[in-house]
UniProtKB/TrEMBL annotation:
One of its GO terms (molecular function) is G protein activity. The gene is RAB18. Keywords: GTP-binding, Hydrolase, Lipoprotein, Nucleotide-binding, Prenylation, Protein transport, Transport. It catalyses: GTP + H2O = GDP + phosphate + H(+). It comes from the Eukaryota. This is small monomeric GTPase. SUPFAM superfamilies: P-loop containing nucleoside triphosphate hydrolases. The keyword Oxidoreductase does not apply. Its EC number is 3.6.5.2. Signal peptide: none annotated. Belongs to the small GTPase superfamily. Rab family. One of its GO terms (biological process) is protein transport.
Length: 208
């Protein structure tokens, strides 16, 4: 999957969502994937933020809008709107923090509450594999958990960039391979107020 930023028409706008406990590295993963860097000082997300990236897959362009949500409960508002129209959801935990792995159950419950569509592609991502010496969750354990839930699974490091491209590539590929997710649904107009952006976006997304 290669990346091109051009003004030519995109085939579809895909909405991806990053959820997971505070400090797992969601904002850093987003910065690494979209901007190609690792922020020196990543402060807690307040509400929701998002970035846009245009990618090319088999000669067709897709616009990804990737929403980065706050892990801290007190900074989460209008939660249902985060999920509306999403075609892919990435649940992030920190491999060096077992609590963040245990918290996945809570995030999965929220996901089921606000996004009941079975088609929405789910991926579990174990971030911070560069912290191998303080690892608390083995790769096998993460894989097994994802296998039981029938979700995609990737380990990565936003810091070293290991696995980050792979994670987004696999998620997007599965969405593209499920045309019913992005081809037929009614277009929804969503007005987004985030801490860095205020734009109107159109999504051909699912109805969850
Ligand atoms: N070692 C290491 N540290 C990371 C990695 N990714 C993020 N961090 C650090 O983890 C901390 C939290 O990162 P954020 O990206 O702000 O976490 P978040 O999940 O967006 O947190 P909230 O916005 O509160 O939900 C920061 O100090 C980052 O520098 C990684 O891959 N490796």
């Amino acid at each position: 999957m290669s990346e091109h930023i051009s003004s030519s028409e995109t085939v579809a706008t895909l909405k991806l969502l990053l959820i997971g406990s505070s400090g797992t590295g969601k904002s850093c993963l987003l910065a690494r994937f979209v901007d190609g860097n690792f922020p020196d000082d990543s402060s807690a997300t307040i509400g929701v933020d998002f970035k846009v990236k245009v990618i090319e897959n088999e000669g067709k362009k897709y616009k990804l809008t990737i929403w980065d949500t706050a892990g801290q409960e007190r900074f989460r508002t209008l939660t249902s709107s985060y999920y509306r129209g999403a075609q892919g959801v990435i649940l992030v935990y920190d491999v060096s923090n077992r609590d963040s792995f245990n918290d996945l159950q809570i995030w999965l419950t929220e996901l089921d509450t606000y996004c009941s569509s079975k088609e929405v592609v789910r991926m579990i991502v174990g971030n911070k594999v560069d912290k191998e010496s303080s690892r608390e969750v083995s790769k096998q354990e993460g894989q097994e958990f994802a296998r039981k839930l029938q979700t995609l699974f990737v380990e990565c490091s936003a810091k070293t960039k290991f696995g980050v491209q792979q994670a987004f590539d696999e998620l997007v590929q599965q969405i593209i391979d499920t045309p019913s997710l992005w081809q037929k649904q009614a277009t929804t107009n969503v007005r987004i107020q985030s801490n860095t952006n205020d734009v109107s976006q159109e999504y051909s997304g699912c109805s969850c």
